[in-house]
Amino acid sequence: MQASRSESVDSINFLGDVLLRVHALSCEIPAPSFIGSAVSLVSQSISCRSAWWGLVGRGANEVTPTVYKKELIGLPADFEERWLLISAQDAFAIEVERRIGEVHAFSTDENYSAPGKTEEVRAFCREYDLAHGVSVLLSEPFTRNHFFCTLYRGQDAQPFDEIDMAYFGQIMKYTLQIWRKNLQRMLSVPAADNVHSSGIADKDGRIVGIGGGLCEFISLNWPTWRGGTLPREFVQIFNDAPCRTRLGGRAVEIGYFGSYLHVSLAPDGHGFVLSPKERAIAHQFAAGRSYKEISRVIGLSPATVRTYLQRVYAHLGVSNKVQLGRVLAPDSADGQVEGSQPF
Question: Per the database record, which ranges form the HTH luxR-type domain (predicted)?
């Protein structure tokens, strides 16, 4: 049924009011705290029982999703841990991840059943009263991770309709854009740049924002890391900030931004920052391993390994294996062999 003109006007007014309130929040609250406050505002405006949001990626193994940063509203602290156990069966979450940028919704019957839901997923929904949900996954070019947000309603509420989905999608896209701009201003980073190889945390190591390159670096060197907080080795040197030290075979810089700490991977030779995967492949090749041997260790095809090396050669300005080894040599210049290195 087509909406009446008065309903359309009401919808425009509602959306405009929420966007203005989100903008006002961005002017009052520091960038690290902004998204959590904005999601709380949205969850009240659209009406939901519970919600969660965060930055997510696939980690080094590219199989299991890793929630690098999260906040929960009306959900217990172990919600993420419990969900990860059944995430591979969650058809709704899989569809959200497959179609990035699109808003998706689900609705269950009185038994929390719905097409495609396994018994394990149904039991999970019943335990937390997740009868209806709306979710979106958005690309976040500034950190090169993905941002997600999901709202839930219980059995006693109506499903999310098309209007709710439209509101939710537009507001979350705007919220993410505002957060990105504020974070750029906070870090004094040009709009065309990103924070791929850095992150922001509080004094206890709880992650506020983190780039994909730093996530990959940590995952490779601390394989059991599951996001949320930085590894203990980082937090232990926060008291020395501002400082530059070595962790996991890389120079790491730590500085203050107000009450938060900024952690970044220092540039390699020639001012170019290699990703952890590029660095691992380059070291293997400089040590004399063939494309085929490296592909078995890294888990990539020989052709992909070759492509990585071509990119490394171009960026580092080297033309042979000897030159590559010299450029990479500063990694071990201090004479230490770190047991946490992946190779």
Answer: 267-332
Q: What is the pTM assigned to this prediction?
A: 0.68
Asked whether residue 12 falls in the same domain as residue 111, the answer is yes
Q: Which two tokens stand for residue 285?
A: 């090749």
pLDDT per residue as tens digits for the range 261-316? 889 887 655 445 566 677 778 888 988 899 888 888 777 788 888 888 887 886 66
User: Could you tell me if 108 and 32 lie in one domain?
Assistant: yes
For the domain that residue 132 is a member of, what is the CATH number?
Answer: 3.30.450.80
| CA nearest to 215, candidates 255, 275, 304, 278 | 275
Compute how many other C-beta atoms are within 10 angstroms of the C-beta atom of residue 122.
17
Range of the domain at 328: 273-332
* 152/135 Cα distance (integer angstroms): 9
Provide the Cα torsion 276, 209, 93, 99; round to 10°: -80
Among residues 99, 167, 92, the alpha carbon closest in space to that of 138 is found at 99
